[in-house]
Amino acid sequence: MSNDQLALRPRSVTSTARRGRTPMYFLYGCILACTLVATADVARGHTTGHPEGPLGKISHAWQPDPAIASVFSLNFDFHAGANVVNWTPAAEMIEVEGRDCIRSGYILFDVDDDVVFDADASINVEMEFYRPQTDGFVLSWDHAVVPHAVEHSFGEADTSSPWHRVSMTLDRARFANRKYYGSDLGIAGIGSQLHHPEGSGQVVLCDISLNIPDELNTAVADASVELRVRDEKGQPTAARVGIYRQDGWQPRVADAALELRRYTEDTRTLPLVAVPASWPEHGRYVFFADGDYKGSLPSGDYELVVMKGPEYRMVRRPFSVEPGQSTVLDVQLARWSDPRADGWLSGDVHIHIGREDANDNAGVLNFMRAEDLRVANLLQMGNLHDSYFRQYAFGEAGVHREDDYFLVSGQESPRTSHRGHSIGLNTRRFHWPQAEYFFYDRTSDAIREEGGLWGYAHVAIEAFNMHYGLALDVPRGKVDFIEMMQYGVMNTAYFYDFLNMGYRLLPAAGSDYPYIGFPGAERLYVHTPELRSAQDWFDALRQQRSYVTNWMTLELSVNGDTRSSEFAVKQNETLKVSASVSVNPDFDTMDRVELVRQGEVVARAEARGDGITELAIDHAWNAVSSGWFAVRAYGRSGALLHSAPLYVFVDGNRDFSDPEQRGPLAQKYRELLLEFRDSTPDLAEEWERHDVETEVHAAWDRAQPQLRRAIAEALREYDRLIGQ
User: Which InterPro entries match (predicted)?
Assistant: First the structure.
């Protein structure tokens, strides 16, 4: 038997051994394959039920150690210290040489709270794996300060036995049930990440035990703090809050914090994903307070951090609490900018929070107020098998408004891993074309006829083969927008390509909460001069100016016009563009602002020194031909901004494509479309394989007649562009 002993301390995901060639023990695994097949049915009784919810949660009646209260598996976790995606089949209990084992891409463990809870201790974990089907693992745990994970590859050392036992010491284990569904510890396979790195993607775990010290460093709450947060008008307001010791440790969050829906569970604390520059160096867990908050904590020295989205200044304040005393903290938030006063309304096109009925609205809206997000598009999410994050109503009946804050029902469906995930905004009902799921036309057409907008998600991170969907649907006039900003990434490549071929598109931004960031982490500002209802925001998105950003604001004028998005001019008429971009100084500083025309930078302003929070461009040119232009900006620590395109039409010519790029780009996407036509969905790429594995290929075959006709239509359009 091979044994490893490792001590783990906080750092980024690392590999503790190099991956090598396929070791000889895989031959041993082939010999045992019949044993696995013959005995698996006996042990499957230990898996209780079928995959549930959007994460495919499967409970396993397995207790290898009395300290473990429950065991379950999931297919996804971007908040584990490592981004986990289980691309392998659904987890199951199997029997190997008379031993009960779990075969899974991601297994989580809830440690019994009566054994250890809310500690800050080094805890030893021993695990035993079946080597022929395990090439290593990623271990994550509820660390005292920050979600943490470490990767360990077995390599080729000591392959004489099919069993491999690993002993690890988890540094500063807190085990306060802050991982998904109240868990404390997770084990994922190497290769179970978003972009399919090398590895089998699963583990076969046959034993796990915890060695817990007799003396645990458990903090005693002997004091209390009372927090009162007020907005710029002196009124109680919801906000995001962090309370940290110098090392980033956060006291347990009290029930006075907002209760937030995350997938199908409720929680009061969340780990940060996007971290503003002024946020403390240590401290990555936050909670949300609706104006007032009171909680217990150990006496000592702390720092308070309060923020309310990128339009407000962040507050950081040290404070101390003495044993037996209560400290009152009054926080007055100040605005950094006020886009709403100038007619701009922020929105997030991609949020997943289910609402069973109207009683859920108050809690969801408080969450949005805490991030100062005005239009929250709550997407019911579908796949071939089912739908999740369900909304109690669509259309006007599904809109909830308080002041200038809106909750609006929408959908992320159809969504397949083979041709992309789609988003429908402001839909009148949930469209779920299960019988022809790979053919998106009926959904796109219906939503747009209802007055909604339809587009593609995850373009920023180029996930789920969305390039196939764009190549098929944009030239046929089906797409209104693409989600080009997400997860701290701004991807302009597809946006510029299709604009340069002459197809109108709008930029969109979405957080994809709870999968990635908090609501409004990336947001879309739309100039909405009249706001009688939520419909006005969606109408303005089509007709008015807009921009996507995380922490920036934009002022843009063309010949003194700050409202129009189209400019009809005569040949050689002068266009004068003035653009100013600012960034909240608590979030970032400026790096550069660029004016882009037909995808090429024609003017740039760069920060000359540190601490610059505003940059401006003034640029003029004579309009020789029709075209498009836009403004984009970058901060030094991740701030991003991109405006919607503005169009110039010279002497009545409304063709804004780039004549030099149009043909080559059309050829590029024509070839991509032919590749799609000849392709077949790969189960190894299925995001929710646990749900759709048995249905994907049959659905693909059913959609072939419609897809073939649509592909032929798109090819004719590309041929037209190539022939111009």
Answer: Pol/histidinol_Pase-like (IPR016195)
